[in-house]
Design a protein that fits this description.
By secondary structure, this protein is α+β, with helices and mostly antiparallel strands. Helix content is 16%, strand content 33%. The chain is built from 2 helices and 5 strands. Strands 1-5-4-3-2 form a 5-stranded antiparallel sheet.
Length: 94
């Protein structure tokens, strides 16, 4: 598992004990008919640009967990956002 660099733009900073990450919204030209597809698309095509400091530690269908360079863990939950071509993931510190 590769650890992110300390200069990789973590929005939480290195000293914050808690952190709020805004939900991430995106669209696709082709419909994604399941929330599992939404999670797979986010992790494969958006995570590196959205949260370059994140390291994936768990993926289970529509749920995933990431960790930052300071050891803070975040849950990610994927869902649709109105139709099959609009999607979102929401984050929660754990």
């Amino acid at each position: 598992m590769t650890q992110p660099s300390k200069n990789s733009g973590n929005p939480c900073g290195s000293t914050a004990m808690t952190c709020y990450i805004e939900p991430y919204y995106w669209g696709t030209d082709e419909p994604l008919s399941t929330n599992m597809g939404n999670m797979a698309d986010y992790l494969e095509n958006h995570l590196d640009q959205h949260l370059p400091w994140a390291v994936i530690v768990t993926v289970d269908g529509t749920y995933a967990e990431i960790i930052d360079i300071n050891g803070r863990k975040f849950a990610i939950n994927a869902s649709g956002n109105g139709d099959f071509c609009n999607h979102k993931v929401e984050f929660e510190g754990i």
